[in-house]
Amino acid sequence: MHELSIAQAIVAIAARNADGRTVRRVELRVGHLRQVVPAALEFAWQLLTEGSALEGAELAIEAVPARGRCRGCGAETTVPDFPLRCGRCGGLDLEIVAGEELLVDALELDDNEALTTEGVTHGD
Known about the structure:
By secondary structure, this protein is α+β, with helices and mostly antiparallel strands. It has one domain: hypothetical protein PF0899 fold (2-Layer Sandwich), CATH 3.30.2320.80. It is built from 2 helices and 7 strands. The chain has helices at 2-18, 38-49, and strands spanning 23-31, 58-64, 67-70, 76-78, 94-98, 102-109, 114-116. The strands form 2 sheets. It has a 4-stranded mixed beta sheet with strand order 2-1-6-7, covered by helices on one side. Strand 1 (23-31), helix 2 and strand 2 form a beta-alpha-beta unit. The radius of gyration is 17 Å and the shape is elongated. The two termini are 18 Å apart.
């Protein structure tokens, strides 16, 4: 279950960036192509935060659909399933433009300030 290692990374990022403040919510963007099971990630999050400074913090997961730009016809379309195929012409030569994200996007802290941690990813 790779969700456990992802949850460990998220806990570390949240704790480091909270700088001692209470974390109320962690906003996460997860691309479809990362093949993360949200329920498994939420379970791992609960397991890892129980009894810690992050206990009770909500993990808000935003699913990012896969999108590709066709090198053949130039169309940019959502790619819901494998094989990754252009939604317009059916071509298989796609440049992936979204759906590979795994990003802690923001923290909601006890003092109601949001701290954005842009560019902090796991696995890149």
